[in-house]
Amino acid sequence: MPDSDDPVSQSHPKLLSTRTLLVCAALGVVCGIFAQLSRVLGLVIQATVPWLSFPAPLPWFLGAMIAAALFRRPGVAIMTSFVGMIVSVGGLVLTGGLIIELVFLITRYRKWNPSLFFIAAALIAVMNFGFMYLYADFTTLPPVVQAVAFVVRLLVYLAYAWLALWLTTQLERAGIATGRPKRS
Description:
Helix 5 (92-106) packs antiparallel against helix 6 (114-131). The protein has a single domain, classed as Arp2/3 complex 21 kDa subunit ARPC3. The chain has 8 helices and no strands. The radius of gyration is 18 Å and the shape is elongated. The chain is mainly α.
């Protein structure tokens, strides 16, 4: 165990604690489960509302966004989404984590404003909407329907960003980030 008076250990603080790693792993499993549900729900939506189906607008990036908001550290969104990618057996979750990391990398991880989480969610919505053009049925729809599909996806993903920030507040109150619950 390193001595706390050791100047080397003081100049290089531990980036990720065991608590952080375990919480990120758990949130990554949540990402993976949502991604799997997105596949199943996508088939159901395709039968009813095909212009909104693939990928289904579920919060598959929610865990990575919560990890970034909860710990405010570089790499936690990537790590969380990597676990989600393994659980879901697909790369969509990792792509969402990369977008979240890139938004905060632009600020050099110095700013963690809520507006940046909404920007990340909007970029994920744009990326996700782009995937819809891989399906031939979507490209045959009228442009107005395609625009509505984009607006719906954007609004839903912005709502997920709000949900991630709200859940982060609840987790902070419960002491998940620090190990000590906050008193109200």
